[in-house]
Amino acid sequence: MKYVELNNGVKMPILGYGVFQIPDQEECERCVLDAIEVGYRLIDTAQAYGNEEAVGKAIKKCSIPREELYITTKVWISNAGYEKTKDSIEESLAKLQLDYLDLVLIHQPFNDYYGTYRAMEELYKEGKIKAIGVSNFYPDRLIDLIQFNEVVPAVNQVETHPFNQQIKAQEIMKKYGVQIQAWAPFAEGKNNLFGDETLKSIGNRYNKSNAQVALRYLIQRGVAVIPKSVHKERMIQNIDVFDFELTEEDMNLIADLDTGESLFFSHYDPQTVEYLTNLVR
């Protein structure tokens, strides 16, 4: 496994396992156990996923020492604000059956995320969180948060895949020492990623799948990734991306797939903001 060093010196696996959209507790527990068994050490969950307890059970059942695992969760919009955030993170720790979290992110840039971040800074200084960061923060809000808080976010988790590559956003993150991490590195199959002819032709040269090529492309750009699958054979395939290297020509071909636009939603779209904020009203 390759690791990236965050801005506070903490090392984080560049490839992890995400449990988004696995709400069934038994299935999620099985998936996390499978992922750990085949070599994943970073597990990414969130309060909003409704499966922190299942992740916690899997962590307890696995034979891997706690210090070798890297566990991420995220504070949801409804738990924004200083007091609510502190209480919700304590609740997350209890559900996950952990004494500390490796990474906590603000899930969305809405509600009182300044109060949320102040609470996270305190827990970070107390050692209950090893690193803090954000998710879905566009460059404008990321810079604003950095300029008016003491601790620079270690990670910004954003939609990143071959069709929305976040080139400019990544440049800004690098400027401020923030590690980019990709959610939906497969674009959830949109734009026919798994059948894309460019990725397929490149993969054929290395005997790799479209999914593996997509992950390899992001990793070579320094993007951390958290692919998700409920199938063990695909978990194995997704982690098997460290035995080949894309050429400059390969990288340029994949770069040409970038549309520069989200395939899911835009936080600049009023309807998106209304939808997400109405979820907790």
UniProtKB/TrEMBL annotation:
Q: What are the residue positions of the site described as Lowers pKa of active site Tyr?
A: 74
Where would I find the NADP-dependent oxidoreductase domain in this sequence? 16-257
Swiss-Prot/TrEMBL keywords: NADP, Oxidoreductase
Q: Which PROSITE patterns match?
A: ALDOKETO_REDUCTASE_1, ALDOKETO_REDUCTASE_2, ALDOKETO_REDUCTASE_3
Domain of life where this protein originates: Bacteria
User: Entry's Pfam families?
Assistant: Aldo_ket_red (PF00248)
Matching Gene3D superfamilies: NADP-dependent oxidoreductase domain
Q: Which CDD domains match?
A: AKR_AKR5F1 (cd19133)
Binding residues for substrate? 107
Q: Which residues form the active site?
A: 49 (proton donor)
Asked if the keyword Transcription belongs to this entry, the reply reads: no
Q: Its family?
A: Belongs to the aldo/keto reductase family.
Q: What is this protein called?
A: Aldo/keto reductase
Q: Which organism is it from?
A: Desulfosporosinus lacus DSM 15449
